[in-house]
Amino acid sequence: MNTKGFMMSKWRPNIYLFLTGQFLSGVTSMVVQYAIIWYLTKETGSATVLSFATLLGMLPMVFLSPLIGPFVDRTNKKVLLIVPDIVAALVAIVLSVVGMINKDFPIWLIFVSLLIRSIAQTFQMPTIQSIMPTMVPKDQLTKVNGQLGMVQSANMIIAPALGALLFSIVPITLLILLDVVGAIVGVSIILFVQIPENPVIDERMHFLSDVKFGLTKLRQNKGLWRITLMGTVFTLLFMPAMSMYPLMTLSFFHGTVAQAGIVEVVFSVGMLVGGAVIGFLGNWKDRMIPIILSMIVLSIAFIISGFLPGNYTGFLWFTVLNGLAGLSAPFFNTLLMAMIQQSYPSEILGKVLGILNSLMNISGPVGLIFAGPLADKIGVNMLFVISGIGSIFCALFVYFNSATRNYDLELQKKLDN
């Protein structure tokens, strides 16, 4: 297929079909994910359990991303998008059947299911990231990434509200089977999406050399390398607090599952608004400015949240601050990903993204190992304060370091030449 001719003539309806599929399959998967987390929160009320559940969701991204990169560069992209959906559906069926037989779920089985779901998603995310530059013109990449962020935000708006409703009226053993419906819908749509392939599918893979190659390419890019390292620290600080949202609502503010769902919806509405700004107004001359501002806004929202009173008034303010944090969240991830996609040719992008995703996520599990016991000891609200203060220092580093601060300006000069 002539990629250039493909993009010029068919890219818009094709990418919108792809985004539609991501929305329809994603919302069912997220309803199931929220149901599992709320089940754990309601049954255990433990920050340590929630931390461990989130930890299992992140470990595959850390350890498998560098190895998955070579697969992404060489393997048929539709296969990499379809197979994980099928695996997630099979896991849902097994979990549902066991729940029906035992009347509840063994905690260890929930952990295993979360791990397998995460492994499947680890294959999908770098695949989506690597095919985006091949499916849209370069000058539309930032906007389309913003629209993809809008789709993901829309999923997160609908999923918590729908999940809270279904969680209260549908047995969780049946609710989990929504993953099967999502897989059927997602796979059916992907079959009709046209995805240009790189001409290296049959090339033999050399894992260690490919990992070394991706790491070398990333380290050679001084500004992006420092942004990646700072993103690693940023993840170490804010990911533990993010995992505690349900416990913050249910335990600290003494709320209900429905209120926990409202918090998630408000955060996601904020993300949708932020994604809309990027999607429709996203051609900034210097994308590092909104990235730095988003880090500062998120930090301030977390700090204030940690000092709120543990009552209904505090919950209302926590909800408002969540909307503000959600508004800022897409700018960091979406704009950074667009810059990464423009920094490397598509045929090696998978290798670089594998290393980058691993490094950006490696600190999350480290933080979560200590976050659960720490939150149980000092209070989940103080975890938000610690995360916010540390994140402000990350933003200041990015701003005052010339290699990171000027990275996008230098990148735009290279793209214009």
Provide a descriptive summary of the structure in words.
86% of the residues lie in helices and 0% in strands. The protein has 417 residues and is mainly α. The protein has a single domain, classed as Growth Hormone, Chain: A (Up-down Bundle), CATH 1.20.1250. The longest helix is centred in the first third of the chain and has 42 residues. It starts with a helix and ends with a helix.
Helix content: over 70%
Number of domains: 1
Q: Please tell me what the overall shape is.
A: globular
Mind summarizing the main beta sheet? none
Q: Which structural category do the helix and sheet elements fall into?
A: mainly alpha
State the CATH superfamily name: MFS general substrate transporter like domains
Could you tell me the number of beta strands? 0
Secondary-structure element sequence? HHHHHHHHHHHHHHHHH
Roughly what is the average pLDDT, rounded to an integer? 79
**Rounded Rg:** 21 Å
Low-confidence stretches: none
| CATH class (first level) name | Mainly Alpha
CATH architecture: Up-down Bundle
Beta fraction of the residues? under 5%
CATH topology: Growth Hormone, Chain: A
N-end to C-end Cα span: 27 Å
Work out the helix count.
17
Keywords: Cell membrane, Membrane, Transmembrane, Transmembrane helix, Transport
Transmembrane segments: 15-40, 52-72, 79-101, 148-169, 224-245, 257-281, 288-308, 314-340, 352-372, 378-400
Membrane topology: Multi-pass membrane protein
Subcellular location: Cell membrane
